[in-house]
Hints:
Elements: E1 2-4, E2 10-11, E3 20-22, E4 46-48, E5 57-59, E6 62-65, E7 76-78, E8 87-89, E9 91-94
Amino acid sequence: MKLGTNDDIYFSVIPEELNKTVSQLKGNLTSVNYPSNYLNNMDYIAEIIGPPTSRVVLIFYHFDIEWQDDCLYDYVLLQNDITEEGLRICGEFRGQR
C-alpha cells in the first residue's frame, strides 16, 4: 500500500508494534506476518496523520482479505475521524485501486 498527499509526496509505515499513530512521510504499510497470512482474531489499528491541509491518498496494489457479506469479520476500515462509521473493505484484488 502506498499512501500520499496531493503533492505526490508518498508516505506510509511498517509498524514495529500494533496500534500506533503514523506521521512519517515515507515507508510501507503491510499486515502483521506479511507476506504470510495475517493472524487470526487480531485487531490492528494504524492512525495516519498527515501535515496540516494535506490529503491522505491510499493506493492498494495487492489486497487479499477474506470476503463475506458486509465485511463482518475480516476487513480494512477507512475513516476520516474515529467518530464516523467509515468504509469497510474486504475481498481480493490486484493492481492499483
